[in-house]
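Look over this entry.
=====
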Amino acid sequence: MKNNYLIIANPVSGKLKANKIVPIVEKELSHYNTTLIFTEYSGHATKIVQDFSEGDYRGIIVIGGDGTYNEVINGLLKRKDQQLPILGFVPGGSGNSLIHHLNCLELKQALSPIIKQKTRFIDLMKLKFETHEEFAFNIIGWGMAVDILKLSEKLRWLGPARYTIASLISILKFKKRFAKLSLDGVEYKDDFLFFLIANTIYTGKGMMAAPKAKLNDGLLDVVIISKEISRLQLMKLLSQIFTGQHIHSKYVQYHQVQQICLKPDYNEILNIDGELKGTTPLSIEVNSKKLCIYN
């Protein structure tokens, strides 16, 4: 097991980046025993890491985007033997929020800690739904955060600009939702426009949604936009999200907590690590230093 590594590559993520990256990764890791598997369908990465035998791999190198990383992490944490190989992340997606937070957007930067065997532990978010549990590492979005993602998925043909256009359209619709929100036991009952729980600084394409976030501080960063904000003010605010200056607005609440509970009047799908899945109500808690990664 000592020098055995599994490489999981998503060939359709980020405009087919994996097909160009895989040969470089294999060359850089040629002194290890590597096994390469390309994912073939949504959820395949989860199945791959659930199915290998105990002790097969010291580490797993994932080439893809945040959605692929999420699949791998959830697959590992569902293993009955509780084996958690060290994870290495290589940028192959369109958003790459985790990679951006780790300051490894360039391929050489991402491979360096793997080659040098440099590791650290990071926190995860444990999500408890009515029927099951799962984990996330990046963000949980509700309200307008979901509206924007839904619309951007329909506008993929526009490339990275789809996030900006989807945001503008969602601002014009200005849809509010009533919910009960509990932050470390403190309860809020109100109409909410935008609600985001983050474990990393970045989300989407380089947006600094939670500039105070750290991957190993045992805290979840919560960003709430006030219902009192106007469309024009919201447009200005969202333009500041790329620099993190939005958190200084009087229309933004920024909390750092360990436990969260969300119960809206009407249950809806969520934005989980950049993917539309799950549904409210849910509770979230931080699992401190749960996962070992190369970084």
About this structure: The longest strand covers residues 282-294. Residues 139 and 273 are 5 Å apart (CA to CA).
